[in-house]
Amino acid sequence: MFAGFTVPPTKQFDLGNGSDLLYFENFLERKEASGYLESLNNELPWIRPTLSVYGQKCEQPRETCYVADEGLPTYKYSGYQPIVYKWEDFPVLKIIANAVHSALPAAKFNSVLLNRYTNGNDYAAWHADDEKVHRVLLTCLKLILHANHKVQRGSYTQRDWEHSVPKRKRVNGLRINLTFRYITSEQR
């Protein structure tokens, strides 16, 4: 076992100041990942919400779905409060979450925000996953099913670094990413 992981990371990056990133290539078997991608695409209640960004209303440039444990604080970003679904509503999501827990037993999470990018025109602008309901020392797990890779951002990475999913004209296929998070029960 590698520092709390049953699967050693393909690459590790020490970003300084308590920020780190672990990259796992081929986290799932390709056939398994393809099946999960299809199931999530077809079974989840995807929505493309209207956001409020710098006082302007705009449609989010990707579809989303939010699943969390019961009793957590309200999750809200850019003026949008997603519907909270239960893990039990989506058996395939529970299977994926269990696989992540098995491979990364030290990681704790109680929610997942899924984003569906239907083609290269869908995107996520530069941002940090630093909402106030998240634990400060957050471990954030991103499972990217189209490429079958997993990235773990730990410690202060969420506070100090931003990320994006840019538009890509040459990307024609479906992409779904799952951001597993640990949300505290107290608001800050």
From TrEMBL:
- One of its Pfam families is 2OG-FeII_Oxy_2
What's the name of the protein?
Fe2OG dioxygenase domain-containing protein
Q: Which organism is it from?
A: Adiantum capillus-veneris (Maidenhair fern)
* Xref: PANTHER family: ALPHA-KETOGLUTARATE-DEPENDENT DIOXYGENASE ALKB HOMOLOG 2, DNA OXIDATIVE DEMETHYLASE ALKBH2
A GO biological process of this protein is:
DNA alkylation repair
Residues given in the record as substrate binding sites: Y75, K76, Y77, D130
Give the PROSITE patterns listed for this entry.
FE2OG_OXY
- Which InterPro entries does UniProt cross-reference here? AlkB-like (IPR027450), AlkB-like_sf (IPR037151), ALKBH2 (IPR032852), Oxoglu/Fe-dep_dioxygenase_dom (IPR005123)
Location of the Fe2OG dioxygenase domain:
108-184
